Amino acid sequence: MTDKLLTIEDLHVEIASRARTVHALDGVDLDLAPGEALGIVGESGCGKTMTALSVLGLLPNGGRITGGRVLFDGTDLAAAAQPVLRDVRGNTIGMVFQDPLTSLNPTMTIGAQVAEPLVLHTGATKAEAWRKAEETLRLVGMPQPGERMKNYPHQLSGGMRQRVAIAMALVCEPKLLIADEPTTALDVTTQHQILELIDELRDRLGMAMILVTHDLGVIAKRVDKVAVMYAGKVAERAGVRPLFAAPRHRYTQALFAALPERAADESQPLATIPGLPPSLVVRPTGCRFAPRCAFATDECRAAEPELTDALDPGEGGGEHAFACFHPVDPETDPVAEVVPPAPEAAPVRTDESLLTLREVAKEYPLNSGPFARRKGAAAVSAVAGVSLTVKRGETFGIVGESGCGKSTLGRMVVGLEAPTGGEIRFEGQDITALGRKELRAHRREVQLMFQDSYASMDPRSRVGAILREPLVIQGIGDRAAQDARIAELLDEVGLPRGAVDRYPHEFSGGQRQRLGLARALALSPALVVADEPVSALDVSVQAQILNLMRDLQRDKGLTYLFISHDLAVVRYLADTVGVMYLGKLVETGPAEAVFGTPLHPYTRGLLDTVNEPDPTAEPTGTPLGGETPSAAAPPSGCRFRTRCPIAQDICATTEPPPAEPTAAGHRVACHFPLVPAGPGAAGA
Amino acid sequence: MTRFLIKRVGQAVIVLFLVSIIVFVLLHLLPGGPARAILGPTATPDSIAHFNHQQGYDRSLPVQYVQYLGRLLTGDLGESYKLNQSVTSLIGERLPKTLVLTGLAIVLAAILAIPLGIIQAVRRGKAADYVLTGAAFLAYATPVFFLGLILILVFSQQLQIFPAEAPQADTIGGILSELPALVLPVVTMALGIIAAFSRYMRSAVLDNLSEEYVRTARAKGQSEARIMARHVLRNALIPLATLLGLYLPTLISGALVVESMFNYPGMGLLFWNSAQGSDFPVLLGVTLVVGVATVIGSLITDIAYAVLDPRIRSVS
Amino acid sequence: MTAAAVEATQPEAAVATPSLARRTLSVFARNKLALLGAVLLVGLIAFCFLGPLIHHTDQVHTDLSQANLAPGSAGHPLGTTDLGYDMLGRLMYGGQTSLEVGLAAGLLATLFGTVYGAVAGYFGGWVDAAMMRITDAALAIPALFLLVVVAAIITPSKPVLILIIASVAWLSPARLIRGEALALRSRDYIHAMRLMGGGGSRAVFQHIVPNAIGTVIVNATFQIADAILYVAYLSFLGLSIPPPAADWGSMLSSGITYTQVGYWWLIFPPGIAIVLVVAAFNFIGDGLRDAFDVRLQKN
């Protein structure tokens, strides 16, 4: 094992708070050769971040290493004294954290923060450090690094901040880079740029890397090997290709099956993992995954499986270790088998239009708060002339990056905000023109499912009161009838009836989304606007909520306006899709048409940017570069032209009118849509 | 920044107007109204009526207010009943002395409170934290005059280290040359501020220590001491400017009590003596000046905050 | 049921959770400092209001023959004052004034400040701006100065003193509650309620008030502490209810004359009483603040 750069042996970590002690890591074994890249994946609370933090001794308050070794370059960092650790940190091991805003000091210039490790570790003078910092910033793709060094973090965009964080980690040219969810807080296109950057820098500097993420798509093409963690232990460890091709642990298998990207057929429900990971306050007996595993036997519940080495039968013959008594047999056990049976009936879609938006616009004045303004503009154009039609019974998905106006659009549809232009017709009636009484009646028809259901529930109300409130407001039924309705709603979303006596904070994230859905359904609405309803959830819980939404749509003939930044989720759930960019609807049409043969260069770019959870997928097209301009000063003509690979002069002068160049119902607003030339030619 | 400045100064001007209205209203609440305030308690009803007519006090209140404001702007605050001197010149003599006393107290408080707060945060949950927290609660609950009294009893009468009376010199230089006599008044005033500021520093440092940028600094290999000095302290100290602004009224109230206890010839003592002697022009003049001083003081601290914090400074 | 529903079947889901009020109380009870405060307060109230039933003294007529007796004298465990009043009895009698005025003024100030702040915060816009500039202006003049001016104009009786102090003390709760109302108004659960068709009165009475009530109660305890201090300051400056009435502040004030001759019992008992009662209210307020914080009640 002398050729290893980092070896983690039987690592145990405990996090003690006032009330209890959590056994966050319980015997983790990992290793890493120089120049190698390891991905650590798992759901929240599985210990992946704790593993990364304990390498550098950066555990949170109350956390300590209670056993095991962390050998780095021959030194046991788990037992090392603070001065030894400090000598390693930022010097031979660099670290990048999740949120680039909070992980930078807000009152210190970029330059001072990037130069800091140099002054500490290399004994460089201030001037030398400053020069090297500028060089490193140039290396991470920071435009005008000399100027930027005098800036403060809040003056940069999220992507640029993460570049600064990477520069800080790399400025001493470490042997190992640890990146803890480095792209989770970023938009899809920025995410891609940052991952590409890390890849490129790793090649150039020849350093090893640990990439911690919950997103299987992120690691698929970025690492050499993967460790899947569950409940404080490594469940499976293998080369990236064998792991993605033939996962052996039942947890890994279930994790893959829950991905919307992997759904074999969009009409099928997603595979889910029932239940929640254990809390780790008490060490579970037996296999930690057994309570949620469809293949668990008494053996699994009695004894804990060891992480056993077995040669992978597939390519390379590298190490493929897993801790499972009943592993997947890659020959006879295809992944698809864990998918539940198909539903009885297909969803009821109609051609009747339920919701029609015509040239809807929303502008926010800029001088409302003392600090909320940017220069040179009087208003932020959040939504600029969006027209679309939602048919009864369908799921209309709206995708776009943050700041594209998709949430504002949803808030206007439900009536939380009034449009500054255009009209919104629901069942033919203009809802902006409704009187007080009509509006109250209209409320029954359109409900909102919030992204953060916890914030949308009064923390001082019990669940019973929360679900009763819409019925009381609308004067539906007497108390007994309301009680019956509440019980019915809880049944429908799969929560026990006893939940009525509990408070929102006692529920898990997935359970709260169920509650949010139950409340949205209390008034039996025709349309539910769901604003990022699963973006805060782990993939296994996300699958549960998506399945539930589908089931309820089928049973009740619901219509969804589903707003999300996640293309895979929208692709899985939506019948019709609208793509938004900077307040404009750039493309809309049937989901299979928009995702299959996108007409707008932005849609194309978005699709090319997505990290497929497949290490063998060939890179396609050209991912989007650049950053979204400010909505306070949108570009003239076509708003996308500043990032468009095929933009021409006309794009700057004339706004492209919507057109349907290929098929009816597939509309695009582009001067040069990517129309396939003919049967023989490939798309653009 | 410019727009922030304009907005903030505009607000301060509005508040100043309102302060003048409050004092104007108090003036009219006086028994006998402003005429008695100016002519003195011995004036006859006839002379009051004559005066009211002559001075326009029989006109409508808005007209009177405009006249009042006009006099204020020329620096005319009326004449003292007792001291045979204009209120403006009285305040002009006393104000600098009060500023010296308060300034010294703030400096002393900052020097002590900042390290105390840091110690508490770093040793959170340990004995030092509990002792200092208890002391802060006690200091907050102790009225300034009781504290002053205890200090006088211990340090002046028992130990006889410091005199119980503040310097009586006419000039600032003279006052500063009698440093031992300044010790008790300054300490009495500072103790409450120390309690408040050290509480603030404790929680600000704790908040900042749990920020992710501190973890980043650790990941760079910074030592805890330098993280405190280079990263945490700056972020914790900037909002202290605002706290100081909010604390100004309490501070000036403290000056009133301390000056009257230690017989320090500042504005507070002037005010107290006027209250005892019903010298209303002086009483209201001082009230107005103190209000204006607070408004300007908090304006300055707000601007200082904006200048110190790059997040606000760079908003154009 | 589908597999999806299993997530919900948590073992503890069948047990009802105790009410928020009960849990608030139990969090409060776990806070030792807060309990100490409550015990101190109950003790002081019993001392001031029940004490005179046991320890009978004359607090109206002076008796110069009995002046300035040292503690431990016959019938005067804490000695007598310069006018011959029994010190222990006077401490009870003065405490009644301090507590009554402090409590009444603190509560009155909180009540008025809460309504004022809630109105400003709920309406927002220029109504809010105008109302808040008024409080800014009134806050700019230090409270003690305003109190002294008003007390110098009017000779206070007990009810007048309460009104005077309340008229100055309402400003800070007004500002606080206004901020709270502004924040609560834009919470997602208010949006959710509006989407069900609920109106303004439901927002205020079902959601905003219950969620703001903790802040109001906590602030009330601090206001009472401050009001007791204001009474003491005014009395100390000689501007409180005239003799033979007394409160702790005026007792201290009249004791100052005798510090030179070492009559310590004239100073320390009322001084310590003020410190104790103010500290007690602060401890209670701090404990309540933690207890009302829903996040702390998770386990």
TrEMBL record, chain B:
Membrane topology: Multi-pass membrane protein
InterPro entries xrefs: BPD_transp_1_N, MetI-like, MetI-like_sf
Main location: membrane
Keywords recorded for this protein, A-Z: Cell membrane, Membrane, Transmembrane, Transmembrane helix, Transport
Subcellular location: Cell membrane
Domain ABC transmembrane type-1: 95-301
TM annotation in the entry: 12-30, 99-118, 130-155, 175-197, 236-262, 282-308
PANTHER family xref list: DIPEPTIDE TRANSPORT SYSTEM PERMEASE PROTEIN DPPB-RELATED
Family classification: Belongs to the binding-protein-dependent transport system permease family.
Name of this protein: Diguanylate cyclase
Organism encoding this protein: Streptomyces varsoviensis
